[in-house]
Amino acid sequence: MKLYQDKKNCCGCGACGDICPVSAIRMTPDGEGFRYPQVDGAVCIRCGRCEAVCPMGRGETFADNQYFGAWVREEDARRASSSGGVFPVLAGYVLRRQGVVFGAAFGEGMEVSHQEAQNPAQLELLKTTKYVQSRMDGVYRRIAAVLKEGKWVLFCGMPCQAHALRRFLGRPWPTLITADLVCYGVPSPGIWGDYVKLLEHRHKGRLTAFSFRDKRAGDSGHTRAYVCGGKEYTTRLSADPYCGMFFGNFIIRPACHACRYCTVDRGSDFTLGDFWGIEKVRPEADDGMGNSLVILHTERAREIWGEIQAELGWFACEKEEILQPRLTGPTPAAKGRGVFMALRRTLPAGALFVLFERSRTIMGLLRR
Ligand SMILES: Cc1cc2nc3c(=O)[nH]c(=O)nc-3n(C[C@H](O)[C@H](O)[C@H](O)COP(=O)(O)OP(=O)(O)OC[C@H]3O[C@@H](n4cnc5c(N)ncnc54)[C@H](O)[C@@H]3O)c2cc1C
Ligand code: SF4
Ligand code: SF4
Ligand code: SF4
């Protein structure tokens, strides 16, 4: 049995694997390094739950939206986050209620997966944007178990993951808050793994930290910084080859190029993103430390917003003022994405990065 006909119809949320009662589904990487569900026909009992949970092509009901620009007032908290730091403020709201926060973190070998935080120290790992598709194995089941204990849960992730979670749970939960992100698309975890190996080989040491959006230069997070072999390396985000492949649209999941969550209407309580263009809308708030775009979708979100507002600088705005490309349509694939991925399948791991770094002109042509 195949759960999708075309790769653009599987976002890799992993909810099918979590819901399967006999563990017949494994998320397995393809030649591009993205995980897809593989069903073991010998184990499958044909219950149909995997097909029923899938969020792809399934609608949700949308309520009235309200639009805001915002940033956390506490300076260290803002510096530690990628945009204006609204996520940690929402997380604090849940932790104060002895709840559990789920978000993406680096783990063993710098793999990115959703993990849980029950205290401020654990929350540190969930902060900041990781430009890698996050693994969700076991997360849907774990959230269901925490909710059944009567605890508060904040889930923050991609809109497709948040939608998959709501489908997995099957009904609204009074103590569940979902926050989804404005989403450019997710890059390949396999190619990220190749990059980690390359950096460790080059610097002869372990990669222990990677910030895709370092703000120390006060440039709204357009710097990338990492620590490898105990030494720190920083450069402009655009000069990093992995980020160049991502924003050159070579290594994004096929489903992302046909994504229907690239709109302001979502089924989550909150949508969070970067307030790009704030210099035009509120120039006085543009201090180079990053600002969040916040969309409130539900009554619950409006209630929570009222309770956390004192921790934030904020202003209300119109829909037209917050619109950015990823709220009006999906990221188009690079014209040469197929050629690029064919090279990835053929070349030894790491060689793709060397080629990318040395042939930026050719890559520029492939992008068009
Ligand atoms: C791949 C990707 C693409 C993005 N594209 C855009 C975009 O085009 N436009 C835009 O305005 N914003 C985009 N964002 C969102 C933005 O970068 C910030 O994550 C968001 O504004 C929240 O920032 P913050 O300061 O409130 O919180 P932060 O403290 O920075 O927290 C970030 C939150 O994002 C979650 N997160 C981080 N990485 C991942 C991941 N790989 N998968 C799922 N969840 C993750 C964390 O769990 C955490 O909850 C993107 C984020 C990612 C991960
Ligand atoms: S049909 Fe049921 S048993 Fe078979 S893979 Fe799907 S969820 Fe598992
Ligand atoms: S549930 Fe998620 S991982 Fe499974 S087939 Fe659907 S989109 Fe793909
Ligand atoms: S672009 Fe769409 S399909 Fe891709 S990760 Fe984001 S929400 Fe999911």
Describe the structure.
- The chain has 368 residues and is of the alpha+beta class.
- The protein folds into three domains: 7-53, Alpha-Beta Plaits (2-Layer Sandwich), CATH 3.30.70.20; 66-184 and 267-326, Aspartate Aminotransferase, domain 2; 189-251 and 334-367, no CATH class.
- The chain has helices at 15-19, 49-53, 75-80, 86-95, 120-126, 139-148, 159-169, 189-203, 241-247, 278-281, 299-308, 319-322, 337-346, 351-358, 360-367, and strands at 25-29, 35-39, 66-72, 100-106, 112-117, 153-157, 176-181, 207-214, 223-228, 231-236, 270-274, 292-296, 312-317.
- An eight-stranded mixed beta sheet has the order 5-4-6-7-11-12-3-13, with helices on both faces. A three-stranded antiparallel beta sheet has the order 8-9-10. A two-stranded antiparallel ribbon has the order 1-2.
- Strand 9 (223-228) and strand 10 (231-236) form a beta hairpin.
- The mean pLDDT is 96.
- Residues 20, 22, 24-25, 39, 44-50 line the site of one iron/sulfur cluster (SF4).
For the record, the CATH architecture of the largest domain stands as 3-Layer(aba) Sandwich
Widest β-sheet, arrangement of strands = 5-4-6-7-11-12-3-13
Distance from N terminus to C terminus (CA atoms, Å) equals: 37 Å
Mean pLDDT across all amino acids: 96
CATH class of the largest domain: Alpha Beta
| Largest sheet features | 8 strands, mixed
Low-confidence sequence ranges:
none
Number of helices: 15
Strand/helix succession: HEEHEHHEEHHEHEHEEEHEHEHEHHHH
What is the domain tally?
3
In the CATH scheme, what's the topology name of the largest domain? Aspartate Aminotransferase, domain 2
Category from helices, strands and their pairing: alpha+beta
- Beta-strand fraction estimate: 15-25%
The assembly state of the depicted protein chains is single chain
How many β-strand stretches?
13
Shape: globular
Rg, Å, rounded: 20 Å
The level of helicity is: 25-40%
Small molecules bound = flavin-adenine dinucleotide, iron/sulfur cluster
